Automatic annotation (TrEMBL):
It comes from Lachnoclostridium phytofermentans. InterPro entries: HD/PDEase_dom, HD_domain, HD_GYP_dom. This is HD-GYP domain-containing protein. SMART domains: HDc. Residues 121-317 form the HD-GYP domain. Gene3D superfamilies: Hypothetical protein af1432 (1.10.3210.10).
Amino acid sequence: MLIMKWRSSSLKRISVDKLVGGEIVAKEIATIHGLVIIPVGSKIKKEYIRKLKELHIDWIFIEEVKEQKIDNLVQGTVEAQVEKKILEECVGQIKNTIERYTCCASNELTGVVDVANHIIQEILEQPNVMYNVSTIREKNHSTYTHSVNVSTLAVLIALKLKLPQKKIQEIAIGSLLHDLGMSYLPFDYEKIDIDECDEKQLTEIKKHVLTGYTMVKDEEWLSNTAKEIVLSHHERDDGSGYPMHLTSDRISLETKIVAICDELDRAVYSDHRLKYKVHHVIDNIMSKAGILFDFKVVNAFVEVVAVYPIGTYVLLNTEEIGIVISQNYRMPTRPVVQVLGIKELDLSKKGRIVDLSQELTTYIRDTIEE
């Protein structure tokens, strides 16, 4: 067992997978007996990264004062505040609710109603907020964070489509429960690579929709719409989905909304396969409009999702590198960017702020890794 000790207030939490070497350790990493593995102030080396991975340490803290200033700038935006608040207040609650239900078969599953209403209320208070694919993903909360992410985006799409309040609530509840069946897989879903699954494992994974539906079908407080979302969120308009190979005319609008939201979050944040860039995933979903996904839902989806989420590092056509700090609601492909360097990322050189909705000759060429 490993423990970490505090040292500095100017630190940044970073995934071990993102370490490149040269970072300064801000928290000691020690064994439970007090044996320090990597002391505070040490510079990360390649061999340290390998050792951390061998010890199954997923995150460490590094000193990064300059980058913290950028983080503060990003976190000050409305979108970031709403995203952070929803995740902080809802993930733990939905995790506790579902775990108590699956372990004890209690009637506490109704707790998802409070979570759903909270998500809806937070969004209604900021009606023009855009969905930013979250950068917050705790490994041991990934399934629950996924459910909250899907629910948040689904509510935004439902509002864009001007659905009735009752339908919006049903969508929020159904999307929070859509992966309930994952809790009953005969193996740890969080620890497998889906691309390396054998046919038997893939068959078991696909059963999660039927398992989840079986768990909720007799819950009288739960609407039929929410139950259908649990059962059918992997159905596709052309009949290629599962479990019943339904075609578009037999899939509800509410389920179609959740299907797209699930596709986005899984493609970007899956622990089991390559994480794709957000704008590439959006392009892929758009290319499948009218084939796998409903045209009307895709159009609403494109209007509410930030193509370049806040905190994304981008390369402009001017060869400048910057970070997205704010969104333009009416022009989602043209956010506001803080320039951080030319050709190379330099967090010590904060340059001009570029509103791409105003400077039309400047555009984002690509996103870059941090």
